[in-house]
Write a structure and sequence with these properties.
single chain, 142 residues, alpha+beta, 3-stranded antiparallel sheet, 37% helix, globular, disordered C terminus, UBC, UBQ-conjugating_enzyme/RWD, UBC core domain-containing protein
């Protein structure tokens, strides 16, 4: 089963993400992927997310999405997925941030930047409601 989701990022940008569930979900946990080539130290070139909670015991979809949202804001150089973005992060942070900002500009704005703090908090609160309401049809947060 595949769920198409969005993750709010900085500056009001929204990032598309797929969650690929095995028939036996909760074990294994879903494979989480951004589009191929997504620039982030903890995302493989295929788009697969490298996040420790995805290898741990069963967690909720809400925890997964919040963990990925946090990872976007706080790259983890201790667990790099791609060597080129890792090298840039540790050797030239300003250039890494510039590349991340350039990538973000390719994604749509969801809200006015002044409402971003409210939107990001609302996202964390609304995920369980959307999963309950839409079930397998959960695709996007309006």
């Amino acid at each position: 089963m595949v769920w198409n989701c969005i993750v709010p990022g900085k500056e009001g940008r929204i990032f598309s993400l797929t969650l690929n569930f095995d028939e036996n979900y909760l074990t294994p946990l879903p494979v989480c992927k951004f589009p191929a080539g997504f620039f982030h130290v903890n995302v493989y070139n295929t788009g697969a997310v490298c996040l420790s909670i995805l290898a741990g015991p069963s967690i909720t979809v809400r925890q997964i999405l919040i963990g990925i949202q946090d990872l976007l804001d706080n790259p983890n150089p201790a667990s790099p997925a791609e060597s080129s973005s890792y090298e840039l992060l540790v050797k030239n942070l300003s250039e890494y941030k510039k590349c991340a900002r350039q990538q973000a500009k390719r994604y749509p704005m969801h809200v006015h930047p002044t409402l971003l703090h409210i939107q990001r908090k609302a996202f964390c609160s609304i995920v369980p409601i959307l999963v309950t309401f839409f079930g397998n049809e959960f695709s996007q947060i309006p």
